[in-house]
Amino acid sequence: MFSSDMILDATLLPAMAVALLAGVLSFLSPCVLPIVPPYLAYMGGVSVGEMSEERAARRRALLAAVFFVLGLSTVFLLLGAAASAAGRALLQYQGWFVTVAGVVIMVFGAHFLGVLRIPFLSREARLDAGDQGGSAFGAYVLGLAFAFGWTPCLGPVLGTILGLAATEADVLRGMALLATYAFGLGLPFLLVAAFFPRLRPVMAAMKRNMGWIERFSGLLLWTVGLLMLTGQFTAFSWWLLETFPALAAIG
């Protein structure tokens, strides 16, 4: 049986913080942010102009966005469970696994920093979900397609979180990490659907600063990879627990 303290404790908090930030950065990536308004409009069966001017249209887009986020969350939770199960199966080789994962994540980080360009990471492989706009079920299907098909664009950031989930070697803890990532990626979709007119200038400013966002993503990945490679990620988790004893009550 799994107990609550196996699912969430202070040692998982740093990884969850990274997963949340990674989800937000995935939303801000060049292959996601630009398509958000037309994607939301299509799923809600409205136009971008209607989303800007009509509250009813935004409500339809928001409802579609909820089911879209449920769809992508379904896939991410399954990926988290699979990664953790694989980590458990390879538990005897976990030291080597963490080292390799750390090196790969640092390479991903170097790609975003512009130090090392990996061509296939600059392309997108999208799945066509067909004509599924304008319905809750269609939005859910599109969420599934988005999670499966928006690779390798999301690959480096998502791969980092899957690597962290695999090192947990516990299915529920791995799923908790991917649920946090899905929350970080999905919540901005809901906010844009609900407050589209107010957020349009913010999104435009983010597009203009996409280079800085990519570099910040690269720095995050490179740092996480280095911490995993040197074993300091786990050490930091225990440092948190010793420095803030109240965190031990979590779980």
Automatic annotation (TrEMBL):
<feature type="transmembrane region" description="Helical">
    <location>
        <begin position="137"/>
        <end position="166"/>
    </location>
</feature>
<dbReference type="GO" id="GO:0016020">
    <property type="term" value="C:membrane"/>
</dbReference>
<keyword id="KW-1133">Transmembrane helix</keyword>
<dbReference type="GO" id="GO:0017004">
    <property type="term" value="P:cytochrome complex assembly"/>
</dbReference>
<comment type="similarity">
    <text>Belongs to the DsbD family.</text>
</comment>
<dbReference type="InterPro" id="IPR051790">
    <property type="entry name" value="Cytochrome_c-biogenesis_DsbD"/>
</dbReference>
<feature type="transmembrane region" description="Helical">
    <location>
        <begin position="95"/>
        <end position="116"/>
    </location>
</feature>
<protein>
    <submittedName>
        <fullName>Cytochrome c biogenesis protein CcdA</fullName>
    </submittedName>
</protein>
<feature type="transmembrane region" description="Helical">
    <location>
        <begin position="219"/>
        <end position="241"/>
    </location>
</feature>
<keyword id="KW-0472">Membrane</keyword>
<feature type="domain" description="Cytochrome C biogenesis protein transmembrane">
    <location>
        <begin position="15"/>
        <end position="229"/>
    </location>
</feature>
<keyword id="KW-0201">Cytochrome c-type biogenesis</keyword>
<dbReference type="Pfam" id="PF02683">
    <property type="entry name" value="DsbD_TM"/>
</dbReference>
<feature type="transmembrane region" description="Helical">
    <location>
        <begin position="178"/>
        <end position="199"/>
    </location>
</feature>
<keyword id="KW-0812">Transmembrane</keyword>
<feature type="transmembrane region" description="Helical">
    <location>
        <begin position="61"/>
        <end position="83"/>
    </location>
</feature>
<dbReference type="InterPro" id="IPR003834">
    <property type="entry name" value="Cyt_c_assmbl_TM_dom"/>
</dbReference>
<feature type="transmembrane region" description="Helical">
    <location>
        <begin position="12"/>
        <end position="40"/>
    </location>
</feature>
